[in-house]
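Retro notes (design track)

What went well: tokenization of the new backbones is finally stable.
What didn't: we kept losing track of which sequence belonged to which structure.
Fix going forward: every design gets posted as structure first, then sequence, in one message. First example under the new rule, 397 residues:
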């Protein structure tokens, strides 16, 4: 660089210049999702959270379909076919509004639609994916059970073949996002042939999905139990493309990638609230942002936030190149969710008592992230995934 070259100005919103890594299409997708969330979620989400509901979820799903956010990284069948980084940017912007909205999109696209797209028959794909991409049909993903979360291989839900070739499903699934509003459920069950996935229309006799209430996290989200009592399905309801745990686990890896980005959205919203508050809140005759201890907190938060976004971007480029390993996704989820929670907690200290008010987003994001920390792989499970990868020794059992 010559002495006459002029450096670009420092941007507090992008201190590392990460936007330089994005092309115009990336930025356009990010801005489209950000603007949608600002218009359709942010003005209302505090009230939704306080009431513990997500009203108009079907309308929101159709709007999300309209901007191409549902199954956006999938090809064909009405899906946007976006790149992994573009999908990640969408997840970041959605979770900056609320984790519940990102969960709606993630479960729809990265779990239910992804399972059908990757493992389904052509008939299953044609029947379900276009309407799911449009948001006309909401999907859910039934893996976790009341007694089996981190150990899905021990699931008790069972599917048996009837004499006529039909399948009959019995069991329970728990903590299922979108369950009570879904038109289709991808349900994983034990069979005499090993674990299989089933595409279950939710109007099938014997299927019910009571909503789970009294949550203190992800309150602006629909969470349900799935009950399957002798649910009879035709022979072609089974996903033909996979057997065993590799089916649901590959879906979870795809969804976890979105969380790597999404957690940084929650962290960014809390960080921005803390910066804004620190510049206007006065104590001892001056803004608290002018005190060394507050600036130290903000600097540390900014470092972890933008390191996390860089990590997410790196993993996205690896996914686009077909080189992203599940262990690397575990690396990202473990780091970014853990750091996002710490950023939210630190932001709360800067806001003081106001940090617990729904007038600000900080406590809402912090409590949401407590769920994100646990679902789709707890901290301990991702530590063990990395531990096995680092040592070659399996410590799960």
């Amino acid at each position: 660089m010559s002495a006459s070259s002029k450096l670009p100005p420092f941007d507090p919103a992008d201190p590392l210049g990460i936007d330089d890594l994005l092309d115009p299409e990336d930025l356009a997708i990010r801005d489209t999702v950000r603007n949608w969330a600002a218009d359709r979620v942010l003005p209302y989400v505090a009230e939704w959270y306080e009431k513990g509901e997500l009203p108009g979820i079907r309308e929101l799903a159709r709007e999300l379909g309209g901007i191409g956010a549902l199954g956006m990284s999938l090809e064909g069948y009405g899906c946007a076919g976006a790149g992994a980084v573009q999908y990640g940017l969408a997840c970041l912007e959605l979770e900056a509004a609320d984790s519940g909205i990102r969960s709606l999109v993630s479960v729809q696209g990265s779990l239910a639609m992804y399972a059908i797209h990757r493992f389904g028959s052509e008939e299953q794909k044609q029947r379900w994916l276009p309407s799911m991409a449009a948001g006309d049909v909401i999907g859910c993903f039934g893996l976790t059970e009341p007694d089996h979360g981190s150990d899905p291989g021990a699931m008790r839900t069972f599917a048996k073949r009837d004499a006529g070739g039909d399948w009959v499903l019995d069991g329970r699934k728990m903590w299922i996002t979108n369950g009570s509003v879904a038109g289709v459920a991808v349900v994983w069950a034990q069979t005499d042939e090993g674990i299989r996935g089933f595409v279950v229309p939710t109007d099938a006799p014997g299927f019910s999905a009571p909503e789970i209430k009294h949550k203190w996290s992800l309150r602006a989200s629909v969470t349900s139990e799935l009950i399957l009592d002798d649910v009879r399905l035709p022979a072609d309801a089974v996903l033909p493309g996979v057997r065993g745990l590799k089916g649901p686990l590959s879906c979870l890896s795809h969804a976890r990638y979105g969380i790597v980005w999404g957690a940084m959205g929650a962290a960014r919203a809390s960080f921005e609230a803390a910066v804004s508050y620190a510049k206007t809140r006065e104590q001892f005759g001056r803004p608290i942002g002018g005190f060394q201890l507050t600036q130290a907190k903000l600097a540390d938060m900014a470092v972890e936030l933008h390191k996390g976004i860089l990590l997410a971007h790196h993993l996205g480029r690896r996914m686009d190149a077909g080189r992203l390993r599940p262990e690397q996704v575990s690396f990202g989820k473990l780091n970014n969710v853990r750091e996002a929670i710490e950023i939210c907690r630190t932001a709360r200290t800067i806001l003081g008592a106001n940090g617990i008010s729904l007038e600000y987003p900080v406590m809402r994001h912090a409590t949401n992230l407590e769920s994100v920390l646990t679902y789709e792989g707890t901290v301990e499970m991702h530590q063990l995934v990395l531990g096995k990868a680092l040592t070659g020794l399996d410590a799960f059992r």
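Added context from the reviewer: The mean pLDDT is 96.
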